[in-house]
Amino acid sequence: MTGRKQFDVDEALDKAMAVFWQRGYADASLDLLSAATGLGRGSLYGTFTGKDELFRRALDRYCATYGARYEDALTAHPGDPVRAVEAFFEVVLARIGDPAVPKGCLVAQSAAQSEVLTADSATHVRHLLDRQRARIRAALDDSHADPGTLDDLATYVLAVNQSLAVLSRAGIPDGELRAVVRLTCETVANQLTAVG
């Protein structure tokens, strides 16, 4: 189309995602987002209607990129929920340790900033956390524990995952993060054995 700038929406979302991931929602100004994506404000508003929708779309892009990896890890060991949780954390640690992406987790960082998000975006972040918890809970279903214990363990694993992201962003060494994962997996195994 003559006279209109063409651009790759997914590429723009990847670049915006990196800004939100590095800076957080509050500090990701439209000027920073425009500079990162190479799009003027008009193009940003024309495509995404504003910062808030761009943020939610960037979150969805983040979850599409990493969510499939988590899902694969959690479903790769049917009948062995402890191994599924271990595999999940292996993916988490690999992402945290990847020097090609910002430290931490976009969802964890966004959850920590919920008070400055719009109601729609805060709800969206909560939905993404709930979806991750549901994936973990489904992997734990392969045990004989009562549903209440499995619910509690799913929330516990979710909480540790989000904590790992915060700790990694604070510069905690990989060895210490791995110690947290080891203790978490031992706790899950012990809880499932105690009630199995």
TrEMBL record:
<dbReference type="Pfam" id="PF00440">
    <property type="entry name" value="TetR_N"/>
</dbReference>
<keyword id="KW-0805">Transcription regulation</keyword>
<keyword id="KW-0238">DNA-binding</keyword>
<dbReference type="InterPro" id="IPR009057">
    <property type="entry name" value="Homeodomain-like_sf"/>
</dbReference>
<dbReference type="InterPro" id="IPR001647">
    <property type="entry name" value="HTH_TetR"/>
</dbReference>
<keyword id="KW-0804">Transcription</keyword>
<protein>
    <recommendedName>
        <fullName>HTH tetR-type domain-containing protein</fullName>
    </recommendedName>
</protein>
<dbReference type="GO" id="GO:0003677">
    <property type="term" value="F:DNA binding"/>
</dbReference>
<feature type="DNA-binding region" description="H-T-H motif">
    <location>
        <begin position="29"/>
        <end position="48"/>
    </location>
</feature>
<dbReference type="InterPro" id="IPR036271">
    <property type="entry name" value="Tet_transcr_reg_TetR-rel_C_sf"/>
</dbReference>
<feature type="domain" description="HTH tetR-type">
    <location>
        <begin position="6"/>
        <end position="66"/>
    </location>
</feature>
